[in-house]
Design brief:
Elements: H1 3-32, E1 37-42, E2 50-57, E3 63-71, E4 85-88, E5 91-96, E6 101-108, E7 111-119, E8 129-132, E9 136-140, E10 144-149, E11 155-160, E12 166-171, E13 175-180, E14 184-189, E15 201-203, E16 213-219, E17 222-227, E18 234-237, E19 243-246, E20 258-263, E21 268-273, E22 278-285, E23 288-296, E24 300-306, E25 312-319, E26 322-330, E27 336-341, E28 351-356
Antiparallel strand pairs: 1-2, 1-28, 2-3, 4-5, 5-6, 6-7, 8-9, 9-10, 10-11, 12-13, 13-14, 14-15, 16-17, 17-18, 18-19, 20-21, 21-22, 22-23, 24-25, 25-26, 26-27
């Protein structure tokens, strides 16, 4: 075979190798490119609920800029609740209190759009809190707690409530919990597939930690919740339903009242302290803990969340009829540094806040 013929035979192979190399380079570049960090909150408008999306730009001087507003097609109107908006992986959910429904949120790259509408079960109304696991959506309303297959939305369990004062639902590894502002905490067992199993068990609360349970979050199967108007305004509950009250900031309610909870890195918990206009920080183990300190805010917080990478904390609050999100960076010890604040978007109060990364 002469050299000219050999050169002709090698050209297709060389071209294929070059194309494969360029494709591999492009794939590597795409893998290295991180998605934007987005922050979502709900207007909770009784007439037309919407989700507002902000973009967090990290750096020496972090910024939080408005991206867009997505109409859910439902009605808001919830009050005295937390967790009305949640996000996990590529999907989120926001409750429409006035429409007895939950709207799915879908992320594709840096684009966020409205997905399906999931209706509450018959007889279940006024959803004011949601939670997400890998395979299930949990909806809490004034009459029921429900679990639905996620993201298909198919109903798999309903637990009826006799008390209409439910504030929040949260889900751990093997059990879930509902806070009731009337003064109780309910344990809702989970089935093997992660759905609600159909029963509920009241968790007895001590006298110094039962006044107005509001926010809650899980650390594995350890629950942290806020009996906000109690002398011990934070508490830990283990899997055996043992309650360990923890004194909060002083003076207690009405001057301070940790209300809403987010689980931080390690053994830290962050609580939105509404009357104290602050974020209150607690340390805990599996059987108790201690109040650390409070970080001041310009207004009264109404929900808090921590990013999935545990590097950011976001708090929603209002000042003189104008709602904002304050973002704090979280250092290696869990301490907070103010990083950015959202611009005014003409909304008086936000409800719910969640990161999408």
């Amino acid at each position: 075979m002469n050299h000219a013929m050999l050169h002709k035979l090698n050209r297709p192979l060389a071209g294929s190798l070059l194309a494969l190399g360029l494709l591999a380079t492009a794939s590597a570049m795409a893998a290295d490119r991180e998605r934007s960090t987005l922050l979502l909150t709900s207007t909770n408008d009784p007439g037309n609920n919407s989700v507002i999306v902000f973009k967090l730009e990290a750096g020496a001087a972090a910024t939080l800029s408005y991206l867009n507003t997505l109409a859910t097609g439902g009605k808001g109107g919830a009050a005295n609740n937390a967790g009305i908006l949640q996000f996990r992986d590529e999907r989120g959910a926001v409750a429409n209190f006035g429409s007895n429904s939950v709207t799915e949120l879908v992320r594709e790259d840096d684009d966020l759009h409205i997905g399906a509408t999931i209706k509450q079960s018959s007889g279940c109304v006024k959803p004011d809190s949601v939670a997400l696991s890998r395979d299930h959506l949990f909806i809490l309303g004034t009459t029921c707690a429900e679990s639905h297959a996620w993201p298909s939305g198919g109903l798999d369990a309903v637990v009826h409530l006799s008390d209409p004062s439910a504030a929040q639902i949260a889900v751990g590894e093997h059990w879930s919990a509902v806070t009731m502002t009337a003064g109780s905490l309910l344990r809702l067992p989970l089935a093997h597939d992660g759905a609600l199993s159909g029963g509920l068990v009241p968790i007895p609360l001590p006298a110094d930690a039962k006044n107005t349970p509001l926010g809650e979050a899980f650390w594995g199967d350890i629950l942290g919740f806020t009996p906000a108007h109690s002398p011990d305004s934070f508490a830990i509950v283990d899997r055996e339903r043992t309650v360990f009250p923890i004194p909060g900031p002083t003076p207690p309610y009405p001057d301070n009242a940790p209300c809403w909870v987010a689980k931080g890195p390690g053994n830290l918990w962050y609580a939105g302290n509404s009357p104290g206009h602050a974020v209150s920080i607690f340390f805990s183990g599996g059987s108790g803990g201690i109040f650390y300190k409070s970080i001041p805010l310009p207004g009264a917080p109404t929900d808090v969340t921590v990013s999935h990478d545990k590097k950011w904390l976001a708090v929603i609050y209002s000042v003189t009829g104008d709602a904002h999100i304050a973002v704090f960076s979280v250092d290696a010890y869990g301490d907070l540094t103010a990083a950015a604040t959202s611009p005014s978007v003409g909304v008086a109060a936000f409800s719910g806040v969640a990161f999408s990364q």
